[in-house]
Design brief:
The protein is an alpha/beta fold and 317 residues long. The protein contains 13 helices and 11 strands.
């Protein structure tokens, strides 16, 4: 057994997974298991304003470092009796885009003692695919899978059966689309239309490198997707066990998206499954999922609570 710590620092949130990974017996890789020890998430909005300024703001960096210091304490606490915890810190869209990402790197080194990896969109996509599908394979849904990871600054779209065969990262995320288009409360019809057109243009370009029409099962990852699923399931509070591997129809996604885009901020905050840090950007996240299903012709999405964070953990063994 190996104890690992995975940290995923995205545009909207910073997340931690401390897990025990046990090698598979006779089944080899397929028999390996990942068991959660701690799974945490903090909304820090690291990418706030990056689309306009090209820089990480001092306030956003400090919010992120504060959350990371708490994570470092948890990692140290859970290392007792297990030896050093193998740790990997991965940063994605906002940090890739920032001119001052060296400030982020030096802060992470001070906190964790490891250099964060500012990974490419393709590597982000591959890690998301691994995290989402390693367990999914046990359910044997139709392959190939199209895995979509809707983040704050970007969306990763990956096609594959047992590994990522083709991938594309597009600069369409819930924070980026909110800041760029959905500025009113609630957004105006024109703002929604402009956001949808922006998303559709990016999705059409994906076809140049990813044969999306070959996919048989759509798998959706990350907070926008799981929140939409929780609302569609009419959950009174966020219940990961009920959301994980739920099948949500295109009609349900469209209706939830409509409700979110026509609601005020106060009305969105009333949903029991809604994380307070996601209230401002959930309309854009839902719209991205809705446009993906329309553009690529999927009648349903399988929702996974496992994503790039689990992929980072698996990569450590």
């Amino acid at each position: 057994m190996t104890r690992v710590a995975a940290i995923d620092c995205g545009t909207n949130s910073v997340r931690l997974l401390i897990a025990d990974i046990e090698a598979g017996g006779g089944d080899g890789e397929a028999g390996a298991t990942l068991t959660d020890v701690e799974r945490r998430m903090e909304i820090v909005r690291l990418g706030e304003g990056v689309d306009q300024t090209g820089r990480l703001s001092p306030a956003a960096l400090e919010r992120t470092f504060t959350a990371m210091r708490g994570y470092a304490e948890l990692i140290e606490r859970h290392g007792d009796g297990h030896g050093p915890v193998k740790t990997r810190v991965v940063a994605t869209s906002a940090t890739r885009d920032a001119a001052n990402r060296a400030d982020f790197v030096s802060g992470v080194v001070d906190i964790f003692g490891v250099v964060p990896e500012v990974i490419s969109g393709d590597e982000e996509a591959a890690l998301s695919f691994t995290g989402a599908t390693r367990e999914l394979a046990k359910l044997r849904p139709a392959r190939p899978y199209l895995v979509v990871d809707i983040g704050g600054g970007s969306t990763e779209i990956v096609l594959g059966s047992s590994s990522a065969d083709a991938a594309r990262s597009i600069d369409i995320g819930c924070v980026r689309m909110t800041e760029r288009h959905l500025k009113d409360d609630p957004p105006s019809p024109e703002q929604i239309s402009n956001a949808a057109a922006d998303i559709d243009t990016a999705l059409a370009a994906v076809r140049e490198t990813v044969p999306v029409d070959e996919a048989r099962t759509l798998v959706g990852l990350a907070g926008s997707v799981t929140t939409v699923a929780g609302i569609a399931l009419d959950l009174p509070s966020y219940e990961p066990a009920r959301i994980h591997l739920a099948r949500i129809t295109a009609g349900q996604v469209h209706e939830v998206t409509r409700r979110l885009l026509h609601a005020t901020r106060a009305e969105r905050a009333e949903f029991g499954v809604m994380h307070p840090g996601r209230v401002d950007v959930i309309g854009a996240g839902a719209l991205i999922l809705d446009r993906i299903m329309r553009e690529y012709g999927f009648g349903a999405v399988v929702v996974s609570e496992h994503d790039i964070l689990d992929g980072i953990a698996w990569s450590l063994v």
